[in-house]
Every structure is written in C-alpha cells, then in structure tokens.
Amino acid sequence: LTYTLNPxxxxxxxxxxxxxxxxxxxxxxxxxxxxxxxATLGNPCLEQLKAFQNTVSYNGHIGQLGLSFTYDFLxxxxxxxxxxxAENNIMYRQLINxxxxxxxxxxxxxxxxxxxxxxxxxxxxxYSMSRFHSEYRxxxxxxxxxxxxxSYMLGEWQFQGSYAIPYSVLGIEGVKVRYPAQYGLSVxxxxx
Length: 192
Fold this sequence. Notes:
Layout: E1 2-6, E2 9-19, E3 31-33, E4 38-41, E5 50-62, E6 65-77, E7 80-87, E8 90-97, E9 100-114, E10 119-133, E11 139-154, E12 157-164, E13 167-170, E14 176-179, E15 182-189
Parallel strand pairs: 4-8
Antiparallel strand pairs: 1-2, 2-5, 3-4, 5-6, 6-9, 7-8, 9-10, 10-11, 11-12, 12-15, 13-14
C-alpha cells in the first residue's frame, strides 16, 4: 500500500504472514545413524514456524536532496534450531522449536543529484536490533552498517562506484554472521 502525500513525498506500508509445514523427514520418531558416534533424531512434536513481517517506508525530496526512511519488523514465532546432546556415547542432532526471533531494522538514506544530474550520490545507514529468545542459545545483537554509492555521467560514459563497510548481523539461527567490506567500480559506455 503506497500513499502519495504530494508529488515529492510518499509513504508505503507492507506486511505478510507465512507459516511452515514440515515434511515427514523432520516430524517423526526416527533415529538415523549418520556415523558410528552421531545420529539425527526426529521430533514428532515439531510445531509450525510462523513468520510476521511489516515494513513502513517514507521517500521524499527537498530540492536536489532525496531522503528515505524504512522500518522493517520481523518476528519468527516458534523459531527452529538444532539441539545437540550426547547420550550413551552418541552425539544426537534434533530440529526443535526454540523460542522466538525478533528483528528490527531502521534504514536512513539520503541522495543528491548534482551538476545538472550528472553526479549522483547516495548514502545509507542501517541499524538493526536482533533478539533470539531461546532456551538453548539466548542471544541479542545491535549492529550498524553503512553503504555509499556514486555515479557520474560524462557524455556517453558512466562511472559508478560503491563501498559498504564490514558489518555483522545476528541470523535467525542465533549465529552472528560477519560480512567483509564490499566495493565495486564500473565504467560503461552507451552510444546514442
């Protein structure tokens, strides 16, 4: 749903709900030996994972300056993860419902079109708050990341560059995922 406030400003709202249905390979009483000291254990009590996501965004312009703001909320209810335990000299792995995963993300962006729209600059700053409410691995994380992009048109040539700082974020399985810096440069030519 998008509402246009005026020709230079708009607000968008989106949301969805999904749920999982596990196939019989997870929802059972089976014990499957994967090696002489490891086994995978089924879980007949595995419940549906339910995911809720809502997004609200604003886009607007003030002169040559563009502004954007996005808020994204995600909740996994009945989140699943693997539980590991040892019994009788065998290491077991079992998929279980393990609490809720909550994710809040705020993105602030600004852009500018300069030099008769030949130079375009964009910067985004993202702040995310993740909470994994788990009996086995409770964890939370607050993370920042930033990204910068620029493009310049010179006649029929376009030069583009981008850079994103290294960052880390808490994934839905309660594991911190680290991403290296990302950068790019491209040159393109288009005739007529």
